Amino acid sequence: MAGSLPLHGRRVLLGVTGSIAAYKAADICSRLGKLGADVYVVMTPEALQFIGPATFRALTTHPVMVNLFEEPLTDRIAHIDLAQGCDLVLVAPATANVIAKMAMGIADDLLTTCLLAVPDSTPLLIAPAMNTAMWQHAATQTNMATIVSRGTECVSPGYGVLACKDVGYGKLADVDEIVTAVCARLNHVSDYKGIRVLITAGPTREPLDPVRYISNRSSGKMGYALAAEALRRGASVLLISGPTALVPPVGVEFVAVQTAEQMLAACLLHAGTCDVIVGAAAVADYRVEKASGTKMKRHEDESLSLRLIPNPDIIAALTATRSPRQFIAGFAAETDHVVENASRKLRSKGLDLVVSNDVSRTDAGFDVDTNEVTLHWPDGTIQELPLQSKLATAGAILSSIAAARSSISN
Ligand code: CTP
After folding, report:
1. Residue range 139-194, pLDDT digits in tens
2. Which of 186, 217, 247 is where one domain is finished?
3. Which residue minimizes the CA distance to atom 6 of ligand 1?
4. What is the model's pLDDT at position 22?
5. Is there a domain that residue 210 lies in?
6. Active-site residue, 267 included
7. Mutational test site, ligand 1, from 283, 311, 345, max ligand atoms within 8 Å of CB
8. Of residues 164, 183, 267, 274, which has the active-site annotation?
9. pLDDT attached to residue 189
10. Domain ends where: 186, 219, 237?
11. Ligand 1 in contact with 346 (CB < 6 A)?
12. Nearest CA to ligand 1 atom 4
């Protein structure tokens, strides 16, 4: 039974640092253990202010280590043994301070000393958690860029109410997401290594005047999940996004746009270098023919007519100018006749795959964390995926695309 667990026999070093989110590390530790991992916990002295070592001792059945000079074994050196004997290192939560130390190579406690001794071939993941201002500070962002460029993977912090009651980015990513990232890395899913992926995400905004626009309810969550998952699986990712409330996953190349025309221009500029393109953006189909340069005034007795003209179809423009062997997938947001509409879009836009979802549902589609999609293939095959997190949906879509690409090239 234990042998069938996904992390059976894998040794994980879990570093816990001094953030209020440290209590969530107990859940992470327990979840990894239940998946079969053998977890060793190293805490910083500051983490002890938030959670006691007995919790991790009980969850892992291993001694929890804090001090550099506390050597439990006489024949081995603890920090080298811990760092070099594990299959993966996870720091969760990771404070701004530990991120700065990692960037600078500072080793002034057991955890940071271990982190410096981790071999390059061992996956190193961090899940930052801190106040929004600290996360967005140029120093933290520069330190993040440094460690990501050296191969550290970041499970990006989320948006929400923080312990300090601020609302913003900096909240520890969902435990689910962190555990999924660990599983993906340990199961060596790197089927996108050497592949460049372009993803469009979010809504577009079409201005009416300097203060008003036409847009839609897209949150960008599905496109950002695809970007995070492709990155995790080794792709070089370019995310071209309309305005959303999301933070781009650390490590993706990011182009922010507002209108459909800007998104088209950015896509045409970069598409030539990309192997896989996924159009997850909810592009506004129309824009006003001529946006007013000044704020339009309200006139009580007059109705207002706006003349709308069609926006370019971005994904169709990309399939029309595609390079050979480029794989192009689109989404189909539907409220009715899902299969018929998705098949029509597959043909009319010249796509290799259409991912349809019913956006009239409350648990799938716009602005929720779950999705239930169906894959429509040019040979008429239809593949229904279960209701699952957008990250898991992204993983399944990317696996299907990878399989389709390899069957075309064989
Ligand atoms: N799309 C695009 N450019 C547009 C409209 C849509 O690239 N101007 C892409 C979307 O990113 C998605 C696919 O086309 O991958 C289908 O988008 P959807 O909004 O479902 O369909 P539309 O083509 O806009 O058709 P309709 O609104 O009539 O359903």
Report:
1. 999 999 899 878 788 888 988 888 778 888 899 998 988 998 899 888 867 889 99
2. 186
3. 283
4. 97
5. yes
6. no
7. 283
8. 164
9. 74
10. 186
11. no
12. 313
Closest CA to 369 of 385, 354, 386, 391: 391
Same domain membership, residue 207 and residue 181: no
DSSP state of 369: S
358 CB near ligand 1 (under 6 Å): no
For the CA of 316, the nearest atom of ligand 1:
7
**pLDDT on residue 72:** 65
Predicted pLDDT at 1: 52
Is 173 inside any structural domain? Answer: yes
Where the chain has pLDDT below 70, the residues are 1-3, 71-76, 188, 365, 409-410
CA nearest 400: which of 177, 390, 382, 388?
Answer: 382
What range defines the domain where residue 78 resides?
2-186
Q: 202: left (phi > 0), else alpha (psi -120 to 50), else beta? A: left
Cα separation, 53 vs 65, whole angstroms: 8
The domain tally of the chain equals: 2
Of 294, 35, 381, whose CA–CA distance to 184 is shortest? 35
Domain CATH for 150: 3.40.50.1950
Q: Are residues 126 and 252 in the same domain?
A: no
Residues 64 and 166 reside in one and the same domain = yes
